[in-house]
Amino acid sequence: MNKNLIIGIFIALVIAGGGWLFFKGQSVSTQPANETIAPITEVPASGNVEESTDSSMTKQVKEFSVTGSSFKFEPAEVKVNKGDTVKITFVNAGGFHDFNIEGYDVKTKQGNGPSEETVTFVASKAGEFPFYCSVGQHRSKGMEGKLIVQ
Questions:
Q1: Tally of domains in the chain
Q2: Is the backbone of residue 94 left (phi > 0), alpha (psi -120 to 50) or beta?
Q3: pTM for this entry
């Protein structure tokens, strides 16, 4: 064999072995170090919804289901804490409706039910914010409710 060929193969093996040793010491993680999964709270079937005001729970995802039907929302009131991540599943029980929260730029598409659409946002402002259906005169006929951020 040619002396230069042997030297070339030897150098290639040394470089490959060094690269392998270098990358072997590197750790690879597919999940960000700061990411945590917050527990989901239970969603009551109907009536007013009120979440705990315990400050240790303020970083949890608050999950609700709001059903829209002929000129009403159920529940008509949702309470969360400032800073909560809020996940609302709008259940269109029938008819042509949507779901909007004034002051939060949160809205679903208008559509025929039965259907569902989910919106997620951070309750960054305290106060009372109306939610409503923006289709025709639905809001003035009673299709509205209230998001209360404490």
A1: 1
A2: left
A3: 0.60
Residue-wise pLDDT for 78-99, tens only, equals 999 999 999 999 999 999 999 9
AA letter at 17: G
User: Where in the sequence is the domain holding 83, given as residue range(s)?
Assistant: 49-149
- Under a CB-based contact definition with an 8 Å cutoff, are residues 41 and 51 in contact? yes
Number of C-beta neighbours around residue 55 at 10 A:
9
Instruction: Find the DSSP H helices in the chain.
Output: 3-24
> Taking Cα atoms as reference points, which of 21, 88, 22 lies closest to residue 61?
88
Does residue 23 lie in a domain region?
no
For the domain that residue 134 is a member of, what is the CATH number? 2.60.40.420
In a domain, 17, yes or no: no
The residue whose two tokens read 């829209």 is 68
User: How much of the chain is in helix, strand and coil states, percent to nearest 5?
Assistant: 15, 40, 45
In a domain, 68, yes or no: yes
